[in-house]
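in:
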């Protein structure tokens, strides 16, 4: 028997269900832990245990048992009893105890990870109530459940999310959105998100003002004042802190000093009230999806840059420029604007979204045509968009800036610019003609005897000539694939069976990795293999050209639809009893594995027999075909399956045909022979037509049966079909929902958490429907398995249909994968869609992708035109694109976006054994002749430069690279590294590098200088910088990391002292990299090659000198400071060399360590070299020592030797830096006098090629010899970096050893010679030098 327990605590109630066995288990635990009476629980009954009397008796006894336990533990129930009664779900003591125990175990890890922590309103309510009670913080005696763990965690938490709910919680009567809670326990919050909570119940928000930077409030507030000024409910008259007021005030409210981002979208705001005065530092303000009617009070936000007012009820913008002074991004989509008056003075505006408004007149564009900074403008889904040549007429309003404006997320083409120039010329001619006409009228008026002014004829408006159909853009990819446009000739069209009226041009896909390109028409290669529709169906290239414009195909489809309609009409009219007529189920005889449906509405129409009936006797005339769309269909009904579909729109019918597996189609007859009817319904029986994924997935729901058909095809066809069907089904065109990219970006935003959303990132550049498969499963026998989890399939999935399509979105920084659950998609998009994001920096085309193409197709039967192997992070997946050209469009856009990234990117190299096994035609990409056959001297020089110094640690990828010589090195560069087509490798340098953003991590890098960019191939330590986890390498390829800096982004090069290192500086902090060559010859050689490459680039015009006032021109002429020596290259790149001032600073730093009674002679620096100090550790007796190299700067003067820690990356300060570096440039770590040097050890005993300087440990009067001495360290570690005194048993206690490794051979020899000369001058004898084994 199951017993229902009703628990009441105050006004809160909840119910629990338990069996008697649960009571018995609880009693056993309490007996063992709390020593309660064993006879307290009613005993078990073996006979008659299910009798009604026994059950009622036991029910009362168990109730008495629980009440007795609660009386026994009046203050705090034991943990087992609390869990039994669900106190940890609904009761404040149990909730806080459970949360405290969780934070006791995981709190520190959560704080270190910096992740967003989720707290329910019920938990916050429990904490708030617990703090108000006069009870101990650990009432149950368990230290892990102490309330202090929660308070300690909340004081340090930085990121918080509070998701509320509407309705009751679980089995209780608790309504979370009505529970009050206090946020004053949070002392360090930087970001907070609150949703579905009543604003009146949120207490303590003002306490977050000192630290909060980002606040998101959704479905909570009716006014901004409720959130920003909750004190307004207590004080009638209030004023902002620091603002003088003439009226009496009852309260002075401090401002939100740190708040820069405020998101109050999806609320019920009626106006922008005066509470915005409290957020003067806000830069990003989102007020979308509210009920705003006016733009007001925003003049108080002086720092506002980005404003989102989309999907409100704005009707006018008058005077908006007085409220938005420095705005750069303004989103006004989804409002009711008919005029743009008020935007003409927003001179700083860069991005403007006006989509989905009521703008009908082109003259309104004149209000924004003079904005000097406007670059992006969106006007989609406005009435003016239906005007012929709408784009060119809009662009013409911008006059000379037409080429700089991106309209509707589409760059302006050269053809459009030509048309704009024509319109401008016509307009100028018209104005000149009007001026001449006016002057003639004046002359005629002056000389007219009557003095009457003749009537002027009305001027007719001039329209721009219709533009020709746009040519498809050619796509190029750094991976070696190229797309070219081939015109369709008569012979070609006759051979393929396509009329010239249906196809303008064809895209020929040529895989450049092969010597024999594919056929230009694509008939032989792309149509030879028809994919199995039961595994992974795609739309073949041969079917795309067959549209409704093909008269032969239209006639055949008309006959098929008409024949099916007449047969079904006879069956419907013969059944007067009202039963529905449906085709046989799949697999039945005569059905052809298809699905026919004619609904009850069609029978009623037949019985009515009216003249306007949709199913009236069709007569001898054929059915008119208005549109044909080829798509991938997913049918959800009694069973779920997908099919390659041909959708035919006629006047009375919607017909869907399934394309069966067949041979290569040679013409229309072969295509029609493979068609099989799947669905035939009149438009009146279509219940809903929805674009579930904007412009990519269209769903049709049939009313009688509830069958839903999802169609995936190209966006243009789906948009036209959606508009056509919506007009027929609902009687009105669909409501505008914004542009394609805007709607897709909004969908992505809905599926992301607010803290994951970045406005600059989620501008959708491209969307591609595809099957995403694990490559390991593609080559296995049987149908390939989809990456979509099995729980997203319904139970009625047909056997063999094992892959569901997904959608790949390309944004500037991520590859977003949208997985769809078609079985539940109609119920709501949020619950049936799952979005995964992969950074573009970690996505790349598989290195062996070039091996598939010409020749016999792979065993899995896919065509290269649809299949693309990708490495997403560490996952190897295969993307099978549904549409034939999507792969090459994806590659082109992917290469463009990835080359524009300013991040450390993942690269992959094929193993040497695979490179050697590839055919010669596949190993080398498609290059120009000079790159295919490089000069032998260049090859020899690059091979000599590709020698890694012995002191640099090599990862497997860099070890592989260091082994490439000659042509192998060039082939490696062009196939795996180069991002710009036909760039030439000019120089190779191995060095350690430091990134400005990660100054403490020194990486080994192979620097490749090409004619277009600088490439830094990094070791595996770069995985920590790029946010990727290093894993075991794949057997076929090696993963590495690369950072690319385009030469056009190079601003300056800072050369270090004595050419020991150099630093390249670009436009952002990520483009500042210090290269520690520790070799003056290597630095000098690299700078020579860099200048030569820069000289070959196109010369940029000299910028016009900026206007300067009197003080800037003459105020700095006599500063008395010598500036760094700057060489401005012809490419405008500055080469900055050290000045005498910098050398003087270094001299002062080392000289200040000498006392005032030091030497009278001048203090000079004889040698400056970047070296390593070798630290040796002995793990145990009998084991060889372990050596660690610590970077140091060694300075030799006439009397002393210094070791310093130097900041190579932060100085000189970059232009974008806003504060000085945290560390000094030079930090002295140790110093010794040359006269205290006893001997020098050379050889391989300590470290290969290292020098061991042995000093007598005699404190001198003029040096801080024990600057780094730690008297509290362990024996053998005292003395600082040198491992000085007792690090080895054989070292005398009175000696200090410096083990120094100088990488450069010349610098090493110079150090020894200078040291010997100075020692001889000071000690009057030769320096003892000992050779070790």
């Amino acid at each position: 028997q199951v017993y229902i327990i009703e628990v009441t605590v105050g006004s809160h109630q909840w119910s629990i269900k338990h069996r008697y066995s649960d009571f018995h288990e609880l009693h056993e635990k309490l007996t063992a832990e709390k020593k309660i009476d064993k006879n307290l629980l009613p005993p078990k009954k073996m006979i008659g245990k299910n009798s009604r009397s026994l059950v009622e008796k036991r029910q009362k006894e168990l109730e008495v048992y629980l009440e007795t336990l609660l009386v026994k533990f009046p203050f705090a129930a034991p943990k087992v009893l609390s869990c039994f009664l669900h106190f940890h779900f609904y009761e404040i003591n149990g909730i806080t105890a459970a949360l405290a125990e969780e934070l006791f175990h995981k709190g520190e890890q959560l704080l270190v990870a910096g992740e967003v922590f989720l707290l329910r309103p019920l938990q916050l309510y429990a904490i708030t109530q617990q703090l108000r009670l006069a009870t101990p913080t650990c009432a149950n005696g368990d230290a892990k459940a102490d309330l202090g763990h929660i308070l300690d965690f909340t004081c340090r938490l930085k990121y918080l999310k509070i998701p509320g709910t509407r309705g009751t919680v679980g089995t209780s009567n608790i309504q979370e959105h009505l529970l009050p809670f206090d946020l004053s326990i949070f002392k360090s919050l930087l970001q907070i998100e609150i949703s579905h909570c009543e604003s009146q119940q949120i207490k303590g928000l003002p306490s977050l003002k000192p630290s909060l930077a980002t606040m998101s409030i959704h479905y909570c507030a009716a006014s901004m004042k409720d959130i920003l000024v909750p004190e307004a409910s207590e004080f009638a008259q209030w004023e902002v802190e620091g603002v003088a007021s003439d009226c009496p005030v009852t309260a002075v409210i401090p401002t939100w000093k740190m708040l820069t981002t405020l998101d109050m979208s999806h609320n019920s705001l009626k106006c922008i009230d005066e509470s915005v005065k409290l957020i003067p530092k806000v830069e990003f303000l989102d007020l979308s999806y509210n009920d705003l009617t006016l733009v007001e009070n925003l003049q108080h936000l002086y720092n506002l840059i980005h404003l989102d007012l989309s999907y409100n009820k704005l009707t006018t913008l008058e005077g908006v420029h007085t409220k938005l002074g420095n705005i750069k991004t303004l989103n006004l989509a989804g409002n009711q604007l008919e005029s743009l008056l008020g935007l003409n003075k927003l001179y700083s505006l860069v991005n403007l979204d006006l989509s989905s408004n009521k703008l009908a007149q082109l003259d309104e564009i004149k209000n924004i045509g003079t904005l000097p900074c406007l670059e992006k403008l969106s006007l989609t889904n406005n009435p003016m968009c239906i005007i012929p040549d709408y784009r060119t007429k809009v662009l013409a309003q911008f006059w000379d800036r037409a080429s700089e404006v991106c309209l509707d997320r589409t760059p302006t083409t050269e053809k459009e610019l030509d048309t704009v120039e024509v319109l401008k010329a016509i307009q100028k001619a018209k104005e000149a003609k009007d001026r001449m006409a006016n002057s003639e009228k004046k002359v005629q008026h002056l000389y007219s005897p009557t003095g009457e002014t003749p009537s002027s004829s009305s001027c007719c408006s001039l329209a721009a000539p219709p533009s020709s159909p746009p040519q498809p853009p050619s796509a190029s990819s750094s991976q070696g694939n190229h797309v070219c446009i081939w015109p369709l000739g008569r012979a070609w069209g006759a051979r393929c069976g396509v009329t010239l009226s249906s196809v303008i041009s064809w895209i020929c896909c040529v895989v450049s990795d092969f010597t024999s390109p594919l056929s230009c028409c694509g008939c032989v290669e792309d149509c030879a293999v028809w994919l199995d529709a039961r595994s992974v169906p795609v739309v073949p290239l041969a079917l795309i050209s067959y549209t409704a414009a093909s008269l032969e195909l239209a006639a055949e489809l008309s006959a098929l639809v008409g024949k099916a309609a007449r047969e079904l009409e006879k069956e419907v009219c013969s059944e007067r009893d009202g039963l529905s007529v449906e085709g046989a189920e799949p697999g039945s005889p005569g059905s052809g594995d298809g699905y026919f449906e004619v609904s009850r509405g069609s029978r009623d129409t037949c019985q009515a027999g009216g003249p306007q009936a949709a199913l009236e006797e069709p007569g001898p005339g054929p059915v008119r075909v208005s549109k044909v769309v080829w798509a991938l269909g997913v049918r959800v009904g009694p069973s779920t399956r997908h099919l390659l579909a041909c959708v035919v729109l006629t006047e009375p019918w919607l017909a869907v045909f399934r394309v069966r597996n067949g041979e290569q189609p040679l013409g229309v007859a072969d295509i029609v022979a493979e068609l099989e009817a799947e669905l035939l319904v009149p438009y009146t029986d279509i219940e809903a037509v929805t674009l579930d994924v904007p412009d990519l997935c269209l769903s049709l729901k049939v009313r009688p049966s509830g069958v839903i058909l999802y169609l995936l095809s190209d966006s243009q066809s789906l948009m036209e079909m959606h508009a056509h069907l919506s007009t027929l089904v609902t009687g009105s065109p669909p409501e505008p929902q914004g542009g394609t990219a805007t709607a897709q970006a909004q969908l992505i935003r809905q599926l992301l958490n607010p803290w994951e959303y970045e406005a600059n990132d989620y501008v959708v550049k491209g969307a591609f429907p595809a099957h995403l498969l694990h490559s390991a499963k593609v080559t296995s026998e049987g149908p390939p398995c989809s990456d979509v989890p099995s729980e997203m399939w319904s139970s009625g999935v047909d056997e063999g249909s094992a892959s569901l399509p997904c959608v790949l979105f390309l944004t500037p920084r991520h590859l977003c994968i949208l997985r769809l659950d078609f079985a539940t998609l109609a119920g709501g998009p949020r619950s049936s869609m799952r979005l995964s994001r992969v950074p573009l920096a970690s996505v790349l085309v598989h290195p062996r992708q070039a091996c598939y193409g010409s020749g016999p197709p792979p065993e899995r039967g896919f065509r290269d035109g649809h299949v693309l192997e990708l490495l997403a992070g560490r996952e190897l997946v295969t993307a099978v694109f549904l549409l034939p050209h999507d792969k090459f469009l994806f590659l082109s856009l992917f290469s463009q976006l990835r080359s524009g990234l300013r991040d450390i990117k993942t690269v992959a190299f094929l193993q040497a054994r695979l490179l050697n096994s590839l055919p010669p035609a596949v190993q080398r990409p498609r290059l120009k002749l000079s790159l295919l056959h490089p000069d032998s001297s260049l090859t020899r020089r690059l091979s000599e430069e590709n020698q890694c110094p012995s002191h640099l640690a090599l990862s497997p990828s860099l070890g592989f690279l260091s082994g490439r010589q000659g042509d192998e090195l060039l082939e490696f560069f062009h196939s795996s590294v180069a991002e710009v087509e036909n760039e030439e490798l000019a120089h190779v340098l191995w060095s350690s590098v430091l990134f400005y953003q990660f100054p403490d991590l020194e990486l080994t890098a192979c620097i490749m200088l090409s004619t277009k960019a600088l490439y830094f191939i990094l070791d595996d330590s770069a995985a920590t910088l790029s946010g990727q986890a290093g894993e075991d390498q794949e057997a076929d390829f090696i993963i590495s990391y690369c950072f690319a800096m385009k030469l056009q982004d190079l601003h300056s090069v800072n050369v270090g002292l004595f050419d020991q290192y150099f630093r390249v500086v670009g436009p952002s902090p990520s483009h500042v990299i210090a290269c520690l060559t520790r070799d003056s010859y290597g630095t000098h050689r690299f700078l020579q090659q860099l200048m030569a490459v820069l000289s070959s680039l196109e010369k940029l015009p000299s910028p016009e000198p900026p206007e300067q006032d009197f003080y800037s021109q003459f105020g700095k002429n006599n500063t008395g400071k010598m500036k760094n020596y700057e060489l401005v290259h012809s490419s405008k790149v500055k080469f900055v060399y050290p000045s005498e001032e910098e050398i003087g600073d270094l001299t002062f730093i080392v000289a200040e360590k000498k006392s005032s009674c030091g030497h009278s002679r001048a203090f000079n620096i004889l040698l400056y070299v970047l070296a390593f100090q070798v630290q040796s550790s002995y793990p145990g007796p009998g084991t060889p020592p372990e050596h660690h190299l610590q970077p140091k700067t060694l300075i030799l003067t006439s009397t002393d030797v210094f070791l310093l820690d130097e900041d190579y990356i932060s100085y000189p300060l970059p232009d974008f830096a806003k504060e000085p570096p945290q560390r000094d440039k030079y930090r002295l770590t140790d110093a010794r006098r040359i006269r205290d040097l006893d001997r020098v050890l050379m050889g391989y005993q300590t470290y290969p090629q290292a020098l061991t300087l042995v000093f007598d440990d005699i404190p001198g009067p003029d040096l801080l010899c024990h600057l780094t001495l730690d008297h509290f360290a362990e024996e053998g570690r005292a003395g600082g970096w040198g491992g000085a005194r007792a690090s080895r048993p054989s070292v005398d206690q009175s000696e200090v050893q410096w083990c120094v490794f100088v990488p450069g051979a010349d610098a090493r020899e110079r150090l020894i010679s200078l040291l010997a000369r100075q020692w001889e001058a000071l000690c009057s004898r030769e320096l003892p030098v000992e050779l070790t084994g």
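note: The two ends are 87 Å apart (CA to CA).
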